[in-house]
Every structure is written in C-alpha cells, then in structure tokens.
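Technical appendix A lists one of the benchmark inputs used to test multi-chain prediction within the project. The record comprises two sequence entries:
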Amino acid sequence: MTDQTQQALPQGVSAQQFEAALAKLRGLLGADRVLTSDEQLAPYCKVMMSAPDEEHRPGAAILATTVEEVQGVLKICNEFKTPVWPISTGRNFGYGSAAPGTRGQIVLDLKHMNKIIEVDPVLCTALVEPGVTYQQLWNYLKENDIPLWLSCPAPSAIAGPVGNTVDRGVGYTPYGEHFMMQCGMEVVLATGEVLRTGMGGVEKSNTWQVFKWGYGPYLDGIFTQSNYGVVTKMGLWLMPAPPAYKPFSIRYESTDDIELIVETLRPLRIAGIIPNAFVIANVMWEAAAIIPRSKYYDGDGVTPPSVLAEIQKKEGVGAWNVYAALYGTPEQIEVNWNIIKSAVEKSGKGRFITEEEAGNTEPFKYRAQLMRGDMTLQEFGLYRWRGGGGSMWFAPVSQAKGSETKAQMELAESILNEYGLDYVGEFIVGMRDMHHVVDVLFDRSNPEETKKAHECFGKLLAEFGKRGYAVYRVNTGFMEEAANLYGPVKREVDRKLKRALDPNGILAPGKSGIFI
Amino acid sequence: MNGIQARALIALGSALVLTACGTKTDQPKTGAGGGQKVTYLGKESIPKDKAEMVFQQTCMACHATGVGPVITGRDLPPEAIKMFVRNGNRAMPAFTEAMIDNETLDRVAQMVSTSKAPAPQPAQ
C-alpha cells in the first residue's frame, strides 16, 4: 500500500476495499501495470482547469492492453464497487486532461491498446483502438503511401481519434465534425458484454465501417460524452487526398465586423462552396500562436484595446481572421474561389491572404496544416499568451447568424473582463451551427487568479444559460452545471440509461453529470 | 518529489524561461502521400527509432517551432528533463509511462541533454 492510495479513495470506498481491488487488478494485469506511486501518478494529475488538483486526483492508474483485460478489470471493479475512469490518450487539455472526474477513481489507461487494425484505401475507412494517436495514424498513412487525410483537433500529434470523437471534438477539414465521420464501435459494457454497434453485430459482415446506422435504435451516440461503456475499437472515415488544395485567410480590421463575416460566409458554408469547418479567430487567438502577450504588455488584467490595436498593426493580424480552404480539382477550386471572392468583395470588407502571399509564416502555416489534417502543435502557443498553464475551454453552441455571434461575443467578453481575463475566442463554423470556443486562460500558479477564473467560468455558464446558450462540452470541474442547462428530463433519462447499463455505477461516475 | 528532483526542476525551471517568439520557420513542407517525399521537422523520413520519434514528433513539435522554449544545445540535465516530461510544467503537458516508457525517456533525455544548439535563424 502507498500513501497515495490512502490519500485518494473514491467516495464510499474503504481503504481495505480499494486495496483488495488493487490486489486483484495486479493479479489480472501484473504489478507493473497497476500504478500507485506518486511518481507514476503525477502525469495523470496534471490538469489545466481551475478546480483544485486534489478533487481530481486518481487513486491509481491501470494499463489494459486487450478487450479481455478490460472485461476483467470491469468484473473486478464491479466486485469491489470501485469506479474507473477510462482514458484513451488522456490529452483532453482544458477539459480535464487525463485526471478523473472525481477524486480517487482508478484511471483505466488504454494508451497501450494502440493497434491500427485496418485502413481500407479503397473505401477510405479505418478501424483503430483507443490508444492510437493522430500522429501514429498519420505516420502509418505516409509510410504506406496511402493518400488519405486525417481530420484532427489542434493538439493533433499527441491526441487520438477515439478519445476526441467520443468526446465529440471537432477538426478543421471537410470531415471536421468527427462524430459524423465515425462508423462503428466496439464497446465493453459494465457487465462485461462486448457490443459492436451498427453493422458490427452481424456475423461475417464486412460493412461495419461503411454503414453507420445498422438496424433498430442507433446506439453509438450514447457512448459519446457518457459513462455507459468503454469504447475499445472505433471506425472512422478518412478523406481522400484531393488533387489540389487551396487554404486561404480573410482578414478583417474591426471587432464589429463579426456580424458581417458570418452573414457573408454562412450561405457559402451551407451550400458547400466552403466545404470545411472554417474558423473565425479573434486578434488574441491569432497573436497567441506567434507571440506571448508580454511582448506588448507586461501588466496584469485585461489586455488594453490600445495594445491589441498595436499588435494588429505590428504583427499584421486582423481583429478577426477567417481560415478556410478549398479542395478538389484545380477547376473545381477555381469556380468556388471566384464565388467566395465575389461574395467577400460585394460585402465591402475583408482582405484575402493566399498561401502564395503568406509563404511559410505563422499562423497561416499551422492553419493550413490543420485544414489538411497534418500534425502541428503550434496552437499550444495559446498557453503562453498569459503563461501559468491555466486553460479552460468555454464552448457555447451558437446559431450561424451574425446577430447571435455578436451577442455571444459581447457577453463573453464582458464577463471575462469583469474578472480581469481576456476574451480569446474563435468560432468554428459547422453545418448550421458554430462552436463558439473561448479559451479561458489564466495563471494557474497564482491562486488568486485561479480563483477568479473559477468564478468567471461559473458565471459564463450561468449567464449564457439564462439566455438559452449552452456549451457542447466542458471540463470535468463543471460537468454538473453544464448538465443542468439541458434540463431535468434529459438528466433523468441519462440516469435511467446509466442504471440500466451500469447498475453499480463503476464507469466514470460523474461524467457529463451522470451518476446512478 | 524527492530533494534531488526538486533541485533539478528548479534549476531547469530557471533556465527555461519562455523566450521564443519567432513568427517564421524554415522547415520543409509535409507531404501528402501520393508518392510525395515526406518530410517532418527537418527529417526526410519518419524516424524508426522510438526515442528519435519521440524527440522529433513530440518534443520538437513545440520546442523547435517557437511554441516552447529552446531545449537543444543547452546542456540541460537529463534528470531535470525527465522531471518535466513526467510532471509537466505550467503550459507543458505531462507524459505518462504509457505514452513514453522509462527506457525511451532515458534515451530522449540523453539526446536532448547532449544535443547541439539549433542553427541560428535569419533575422525576420
């Protein structure tokens, strides 16, 4: 027994019960795959959110490598009523990273389940295990000269498709709505049963990765942002590398231009003229990728508007910066490019920047990489904007309408500024919606600022909620508050499903506010 | 954290003040398959060696692109490097044993510790 395991016990689990569970887990996995020392658990404790570390400290971490081992782990956890928090690569930065939702849960780390089971270059599909990273898949495609592109979130290289997709993350290519491009799952249920969704249950089927819906109720959705099962395999669709690719930026000089930007570009997105999940990033998001704030401002609190104006001028960034791309044959691109140019020119604002003009400069370069699913960690520059390692994504869903965008932006900015924090925001434009993504950045080494950030985040959720705006995803410190925004009936149905599928409540209790 | 580790962390922490703020890089473009030559962060192929792969595709993805501080050519102590990798540091994420095993991390720390300084970039 270690001091660590004595310190971090799950709620309602005694030290004896916990130790007995660990002893059985050692028997199943081997002692070297049951991690309990402070040193071994340290990487699982590193979070960026404002909630105290102690509230999310794991009791242990265990490494499973096969479906059978996952089944065995869940059997033991049921026996001892000991909760487990499954992670795939644990790179959910700003949403809780690898730490469990509540103190003492055992992290079930699936990083070693990292097989790329199949890539079909004809049907452009893949079947992967949860530990596979985007970098690993990218390497595989390159090494085997398979002309398929990935769609990945900004921490691409070290994150993975299963974790990102089951948390309903997004990317920046035409396949940017990742759950939409997911096809077929294998899920180990708390009972130990192994469910294959979609066509996966059909004996001898070869259509598991090509037809999402199967027959009867469509189940894949209930295994996303949930705690109803452990996803051990996932199919996804990959984009064929197009013959030509044209990334571009449109720069706008005034913060007030956001309304016009959305009204100009939304019809082009809905019509498929702009096929990718394009972004509209504000001045600080844009600048953070290339410089720390201290280059222009060493003070505390909100970055003054005069400093932002100076940054815009000297660093050559806009108040708003659109990044979009065209894909296809050169002829197709030419047609769509002319439509976009014409629409923007007609709007009277916006300056185009092409790849030819931007050359190899950042942030254009990393945006172009993200929009083709290449590996880059350049956007981690956001974390040095103020320094101190504090980051929480506040991500309310917005209609793709200019008036809505403006209202949300102004509300977010006013609340953040009230707490001395910057509005570092971006809109990721979906099919009809926009993910309004705000990085609540703070100095986590400063307890006072961390406290303010915590209060600020709570207020953001509450004030947006009053106006009918809710987040699509949230860090593990605010899951209850986010779940409440979706109403009591939704919460009750979530709970009924939980009780049916995981009667002992051993799987990730508290995920998305769901307990038995 | 023991005393030696704490001292190593403090020593490295004071050395790794975030200084990088470059806006331009001069790295080869990544390939797109279809027969194109693949290059990544200056390497003409994907590294086969595990430690080299971690160094090139993880460490250098931030520490050679201006996102994180320069760590090459600074005689950084291997123990301190390992501490940072396992614990993270402010914006830097932590890496578990499942991501980078101890043996590989030992080699990566040696590589970083004994690495040469990056070639000076032309003035922007």
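Residues 50-63 of chain B form the longest helix (14 residues). Confidence is low (pLDDT under 50) at residues 1-44 of chain B. Comparable benchmark entries are summarised in Table A2.
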